[in-house]
């Protein structure tokens, strides 16, 4: 994905996809308007349809979502399905797929460390810049969250504390955008 190097995932057969708003925002926080995405081995253009904000001082970090619409859906691209967040449990196995360091698809695994860390999902999978906006899957292959950030407080070396926006919050965002998933 470019405005920057990030991740995202297809949610409808007609080309709607989710990523983080900070992945499609300019330095001033406004939408970049258009971006390019790589899907099923092809690069296609996409329009930013709606975005929340990454300004966690004024808004919940769960607002760091963006809805984009691909100009076309490449053959072989399949929309992902959401899981039921009420069934997510601390300690369960999960997987994260993303564009780690902008180097292409990377899959990591781990566990859920805390299902409700300040209304977000905390987990220990290895992630890096470029994973933002990517899906967090449960063992059944259902999306239970959207990766938003790794935690690294200033002056403290922290590892394995990553956060995702729960799929329930993603669904609420999509409903606000007029998509019923």
End-to-end gap: 23 Å
Structural class: mainly beta
Q: Tally the helices.
A: 1
* Overall strand count: 11
Radius of gyration: 15 Å
String of helices and strands: EEEEEEEEEEEH
Mean pLDDT: 84
Query: Strands across the major sheet, in which order?
Result: 6-7-8-11-10-9
- The portion of residues forming beta strands comes to 35-45%
List segments where confidence is low: pLDDT < 50 over at least 5 consecutive residues: 54-59
Largest sheet: 6 strands, antiparallel, barrel
Helix amount: under 10%
Overall outline:
globular
Summarize the structure.
6% of the residues lie in helices and 36% in strands. It is mainly beta and 181 residues long.
Task: Please specify the SSE layout and strand pairing.
Layout lengths: L8 E2 L5 E4 L14 E6 L2 E10 L14 E5 L22 E6 L7 E12 L2 E4 L11 E4 L4 E8 L11 E5 H10 L5
Antiparallel strand pairs: 1-2, 2-5, 3-4, 4-5, 6-7, 6-9, 7-8, 8-11, 9-10, 10-11
């Amino acid at each position: 994905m470019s405005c920057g190097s990030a991740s995202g995932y297809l949610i409808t057969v007609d080309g709607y996809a989710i990523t983080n708003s900070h992945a499609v925002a300019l330095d001033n926080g406004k939408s970049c308007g258009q971006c390019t995405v790589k899907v099923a081995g092809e690069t296609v253009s996409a329009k930013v349809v709606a975005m929340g904000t990454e300004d966690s001082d004024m808004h919940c970090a769960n607002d760091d979502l963006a809805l984009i619409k691909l100009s076309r859906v490449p053959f072989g691209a399949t929309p992902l399905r959401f899981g039921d967040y009420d069934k997510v449990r601390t300690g369960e196995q999960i997987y994260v797929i993303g564009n780690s360091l902008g180097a292409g698809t990377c899959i990591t695994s781990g566990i859920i460390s805390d299902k409700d860390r300040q209304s977000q999902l905390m987990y220990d999978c290895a992630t890096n810049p470029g994973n933002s906006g990517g899906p967090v899957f449960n063992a059944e292959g259902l999306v239970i969250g959207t990766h938003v950030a790794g935690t690294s407080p200033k002056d403290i070396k922290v590892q394995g504390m990553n956060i995702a926006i729960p799929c329930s919050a993603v669904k609420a965002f999509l409903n606000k955008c007029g998509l019923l998933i």
